[in-house]
Amino acid sequence: MAENISFFQRINEYFDKAAKFTDYPQGLLEQIKICNSSCHFTFPIKRDDGTIQTIHGWRAEHSHHKLPTKGGIRYSMLVNEDEIMALAALMTYKCALVDLPYGGAKGGIKLNRKDYSESELERITRRYTYELIQKNYIGPGIDVPAPDYGTGENEMSWILDTYLSMSPDKLDAIACVTGKPIEQNGIKGRKEATGRGVVFGLEEACSFEDDMKQVGLQPGLRGKTVVIQGFGKVGYPASKYLNEAEAKVIGIAEADGAIYSPKGLDIESISAYRDETGSIRNFPDATFIENPNDILEMECDILVPAALENQITAENAPRIKARIIAEAANGPTTTKAHEILKKRGAMIIPDTFLNAGGVTVSYFEWLRNLSHVGFGRLGRRYEESAYNAMVHFIEQATGYQFSDDERQTVHGADETDLVNSGLQDTMINAYQEIRETRFKYGRDIVDSRTAAYINAIHTIAQSYMQLGIFP
Predict the structure, then answer these.
(1) Catalytic, out of 66, 70, 94, 106
(2) Catalytic site residue 106?
(3) Fewest 10 Å CB contacts: which of 272, 308, 366, 397?
């Protein structure tokens, strides 16, 4: 397989490899993998100094087998049509894999957000949203954006406000975008959802003794050493929850350098240091590494690329020592690198699965917005009454008196509890289905990435056949 193929071509190569294990008609397979619709538009923006600049934006809707389509919006200098179509395709397969009723989409604007003021970013975001509205690329039942690399709650709130001002449907318009601030009908747990999903997925993947034996490790996350590339919206919460699971994060890389400590890193101290200095450079109690890519080659049990695509290549893959590659980012491993790592015997947990936490919780937010009822509101008090009655019964039966602290742990599920429970269940079920597919076709024949694509293809193909488009 060629190393210099485009990102979208690489996704299609993975698709074609998996499609060979299915018996669907070629016409249906071609329909599944093609990008249904993409749009590149330009618009002028007035800078704070009065100059005019032309901005380039894209939105791609890869598949309409389910509506709405769903996918983030990223702000990056790497944004182009091929990247957006590739990421939209990944969203299609990701949503199918974790059983979400969405087609895949993705959007982006080519810019470095550090070069723009807050007011300029707001004007750019609002104008981009206007273009999406004009071209029918946004709506609660049409296409629902979310945050991605370079964007966050602020951008989503500007998108919502712009859409509300132009939509005749004020009731359900709040579901036009997810990843919103809590105060604007967002959902608790969305901000850290992708990172938390990474850890839930890793916990499940590392729970099988036979699988861990193949890579020379013991089951569970406890005691495993971890290196993370990226300390942003995915890498930071992933590193925090990995530490809570008693894994040991020994290395963290950012664009301007990396830090390493074999005894383990204090994640909250690093976060506070970065907030204060604007960087993780020269964090005390750790060795600073000038070239952040060097951290990928450190000795560790688990490597978590949580930044951008194409970080593990044919050039550096032979030097990567990690037993498990946990793809928290979209497309971090090139095709040749995947084959090199696989031949060495490394376990690769694919992005189509491991990166699905964000869109899963976005789905919960979308449902919450459409139902206009907060999760946990209807049943929480009833559950608390039931739990308190059970505690009272235990006290009467045993004579044991629960302390005030113990009683405080007994409460009905709130929104955060329900979101995390739903996310964990989703990640567990999806991984078990991937593993079952590997066993079905033979673990030596089908790796986890191929199995994930096989499962996604089955789900999407069934949707098309239910629509009556294909026999």
Answers:
(1) 106
(2) yes
(3) 397
